[in-house]
Design brief:
The structure is a single chain. The protein is an alpha/beta fold. The protein has 2 domains: 240 residues, no CATH class; 245 residues, 3-Layer(aba) Sandwich (Rossmann fold), CATH 3.40.50. It has 24 helices and 16 strands. β10 and β11 form a beta hairpin. The longest helix is centred in the middle third of the chain and has 27 residues. The chain is elongated.
């Protein structure tokens, strides 16, 4: 191990022990819930109630993926649930297909619908995306109701068959419930595991900060489409099992109100975890039954309980418990063992002093405002090139155009010999362009280590793949900036200065050829700025080219090999630091005409 827990005695891997114990508890609970319906006789009513809870929970897991992990609203989950149900219902009852083939068709229909909806709508966000999903949900329900020749209309589909495995048909409801429970645990485990994969980290990065995700190499749009498609697949799978369990379906079971119920289940239990969504589903289905002893007022008590939980536990019940446990038992600090050296390889084979970035007539206009106006700029390899200018001179806008966050109004950008002005941010990051922001943009739901791992996972990064290789690179980057001991902590718990360093480490883990630093000294005290100066000099010594914006002239003078000055979007000076900082036009831009004369 590169890092180890300071609280762990020698020879004892406490995290491994905790994982083994947690796995054993999980398997014990799973075995118990699987055996109960087989061994304990239950009335048909309770079997149906539990079948509804287990199949609904599988569909609600889809909301964990799309909303909890990726942060995208989906109010059409009942439509995907219905497509899976109708695939099984019509496939077995109308076309005489085997259950598993009909289920595959239903899930495929839901997947295609989810992907199509995602591709056409996920460039929107917020309430616009919610309105699109509501419209899709409404249209799907209308089709189910009115396409009578296929769906049988409001009368619904009867005579739905149940599955057969190795010649055994699950005609007994207890056996079918056990099958649904197995499916529930398998899907729940897969959703839990997804969070720890590259795709899961990309989803969480998009959820926490889409701009930062893009410049670290995450294709935000493709990630959101994948999340939406996975959500639809889980909805269709749950719907198919639901249809097999109840042998009857009708359009009113898959209306918009059911999508609202699914969303409430996810939010009630805690949408960020499959454990939470399963808990919320169970409570929302079973709680009315537990409260029926209150007779007339039980629905009012039930509604009030749900509202109170959602108001006072905004992260849901599971989220509240998890946060409380995290405060009660915070992640143990890590002590530094042997931190591997940071090796940057993207500069190898390139001659120092050759051009890495060239701008020709680059402009960005916002209506009549020329934020960047016909700027020409050349940056050489293995240099620190500073961009300075008064507030509002267009410096950050220029960086945003370089990264692809803004499209250039006109002009050319050539990076490492390639024209890139038409590329998206993630594609520019894949070529070796790293970035930090003036206001720190980290992924607040991830640990420090996972934040940096997201940077290491950028496409075309020439590093050892796999969790161990990526973690090793991330730890090396954290060690280089001086904060490896914070690897297990969540980024919100760090000081502002340490968050700055983590953001730089995330960019370094991407093994960039060119590092864009937007005001890295902002908000730092004097000792922290001096540490930053030393860090920048060490980076230059590693062969990294740096393009930096900063208002601190002392910092710029200490690190810059070349300075370009902008004023009102135009380049007014360019050259060696001593020459540029004595330029009368630069002095006038910073001090104003009369003060510049006095200074002269």
């Amino acid at each position: 191990m590169i890092l180890s827990e300071s609280s762990a005695p020698a020879g004892v891997d406490k995290p491994l022990q905790r994982r083994v114990i947690a796995l054993l508890v999980f398997l014990a609970i799973a075995a118990a819930t699987f055996c109960v319906p087989l061994l304990v006789p239950m009335p048909a009513y309770y079997l149906n109630l539990l079948m509804q809870a287990s199949t609904y929970a599988i569909a609600v897991f889809g909301l964990t993926v799309v909303l909890g992990y990726c942060g995208q609203i989906n109010l059409a989950q009942a439509a995907f649930f219905g497509l899976g149900a109708y695939g099984v219902g019509l496939g077995t009852a109308t076309f005489g297909l085997p259950f598993w083939l009909a289920l595959a068709i239903g899930v495929s229909l839901a997947a295609v619908a989810g992907a199509a909806l995602g591709l056409t709508s996920l460039r929107l966000g917020g309430h616009y995306l919610a309105m699109v999903t509501i419209s899709f949900q409404t249209i799907t329900t209308l089709v189910m109701t009115n396409w009578i020749s296929l769906t049988r209309g409001p009368d619904g589909v009867t005579g739905i068959s149940r599955p057969t495995i190795l010649g055994h048909t699950f005609s007994d409801s207890s056996e079918y419930l056990a099958l649904c429970v197995v499916a529930l645990y398998v899907v729940g485990f897969a959703v839990w595991w997804l969070k720890k994969t590259r795709l899961g980290r990309a989803m969480q990065a998009v959820r926490d900060n889409e701009l930062a995700a893009g410049v670290t190499g995450v294709n935000a749009y493709a990630t959101k489409v994948k999340a939406f498609t996975l959500s639809a697949i889980l909805g269709g799978f749950g719907g198919g099992l639901f249809a097999g369990g109840f042998a009857y379906i009708s359009p009113d079971q898959f209306s918009f109100s059911e999508s609202v119920v699914f969303l409430t289940m996810a939010l009630l239990g805690g949408v960020g975890s499959p454990f939470g969504t399963a808990l919320g589903t169970g409570l929302l289905i079973l709680l009315p039954e537990w409260l029926r002893f209150l007779k007339v007022v039980y629905l009012a008590v039930y509604g009030a309980a749900v509202i109170l939980v959602m108001v006072f536990m905004p992260d849901g019940i599971w989220g509240f418990v998890s946060n409380y446990w995290r405060r009660l038992r915070p992640a143990p600090p890590f002590r530094v063992g042997v931190v591997p050296p940071l090796v940057l390889t993207t500069h190898m084979g390139n001659e120092d002093g050759s051009l890495i970035l060239m701008l020709r007539g680059l402009s960005r206009h916002f209506g009549g405002l020329k934020a960047v106006d016909a700027v020409d700029l050349e940056i050489k390899r293995n240099t620190v090139h500073a961009l300075i200018g008064p507030n509002g001179s267009g410096k950050t806008t220029l960086l945003n155009v370089l990264n692809g966050l803004y499209a250039a109004t006109q002009g050319e950008i050539e990076f490492d010999g390639k024209r890139i002005e038409q590329l998206k941010p993630h594609a520019r990051a894949a070529l070796g362009m790293g970035r930090t922001f003036q206001n720190v943009r980290l992924f607040g739901g991830l640990t420090v280590l996972d934040n940096v791992v997201v940077g290491a996972e950028r496409p075309n990064n020439d590093v050892p793949q796999g969790r161990d290789g990526l973690s090793g690179l991330a730890v090396a980057a954290l060690g280089f900036v001086g904060v490896p001991q914070h690897a297990s902590q969540r980024v919100q718990s760090l000081s502002y200065g340490h968050q700055r360093l983590v953001e730089i480490a995330r960019a370094l883990a991407g093994n960039p050829m060119l590092l864009l630093l937007d005001e890295p000294g902002a908000g730092l005290n004097h000792p922290e700025k001096q540490e930053l100066v030393g860090l920048l000099k060490r980076l230059k010594g590693h062969g990294l080219t740096i393009f930096i914006i900063d208002h601190d002239m002392n910092l710029v003078e200490q690190v810059a090999d070349h300075i370009t000055v902008l004023n009102f979007g135009r380049r007014i000076a360019d050259g060696a630091p001593a020459e540029v900082l004595r330029n009368p036009d630069v002095i006038a831009a910073y001090l104003g005409g009369q003060q510049a004369d006095a200074a002269a």
